[in-house]
Amino acid sequence: MTKAELDRISFLPDHLIDRILSDLPTMEVVRTSILSSKWKNKWTAQPNLVFDKQCVSAAASQDSKLLRIIDHVLLVHDGSINKFEISSSINDLNSVTSVDIDRWILHLIKKSIKVLVLDVWIGEYYKIPWCLFSCQSLLHLKLSFCRVKPPTKFEGFKKLKSLELKHVTVTQNAFDKLINGSPLLERLLLEHFDGFTEIHIDAPNLKFIEFTGKFEDISFDNTPQLAAAYFNLSFYQNRLNGRSNNLLNLFDHLPRLKSTLICTHFLKYLASGVVPLELPTPCMNLRTLYLEIDFNDLKQISVVLCLLKSSPNIRKLALSVPLKKKNALLTNASYCWENLFSLPAMPLIVRQKIIVKPDVNVNSILMTKLISLRKASVHAEVVNYGGSDSQFFSS
């Protein structure tokens, strides 16, 4: 048997070998250098460097081993770096300091990095160095456990398409610069941020947005492409900021919204002020609606009914019912859906499926009431759903 027959992979065309290596974890790609002289430097041209939780945990078992690995990979790497990711659990990076990460970022900027993921905890929030804000090659930026304070002359990332900020401290002015100065931004995710409480979004190409955490107010301006919006407000105090109603202000600026998730506290936010029976402009594109509702709150029910009446093309509706106690009682307000509208009562219009997702075992009376609601479509069905939220939106 010939050498080529024994080692078929080594004799594959270079572009196929590169494709194989691109599907392997970074640490495994580096290990291919010991196979033969032909493989010694193959890994040094791989454009994606990912030091994920599995890789970091393995290396962290020996003090400073991870530092040496990343430093060596960056030093020897020959070619462009499209993606650099380092992510870990809370206690894996005891030996990594802010100086180390600063050094890596400076090197990556010189390589015109396109995708940067920093999801690390080094004992404190990591302060993003000013040099990163000059990197105009960035397409995707994900930061966790960081402090973001750009220089005063920062005007945004002109090519950025995706921004994720989790457990990040950033001022109102800095956040506004990040959003307004990134005209190509298509995806925005904010999770447990602090430093500002009012969110104003001006992003003409934004298609997806997700908020989780505390904020006092949110407004959209110039977001004609926004198709999916998920709102998970963890706390809300009744504020209108000079408006007659938060519900009208929000949906009036989301003309192309196709799917949305609204949790209980954000539903309270939308219920501030006088809730109309129907939105002035119908949500003609809304197809998927996920609502976490307190059936004992008449104002929340009013918001839900207003949305349903204003969304004639809904295909999927999910109702999640969070009860603080398993034996929590449901008042008469829980069953007054049709009474909130003048006669004749509004039929519930859902083209395909109504999904009820209780967090606990909800009183069977409530389930019976929901199932018995009149449906405009004979094809719609009411089901009790036990899957995850992500499965609901993807199904």
Automatic annotation (TrEMBL):
It comes from the Eukaryota. InterPro entries: F-box-like_dom_sf, F-box_dom, LRR_dom_sf, LRR_FXL15/At3g58940/PEG3-like. It holds the Pfam family F-box. Residues 6-54 form the F-box domain. This is F-box domain-containing protein. It comes from Pisum sativum (Garden pea).
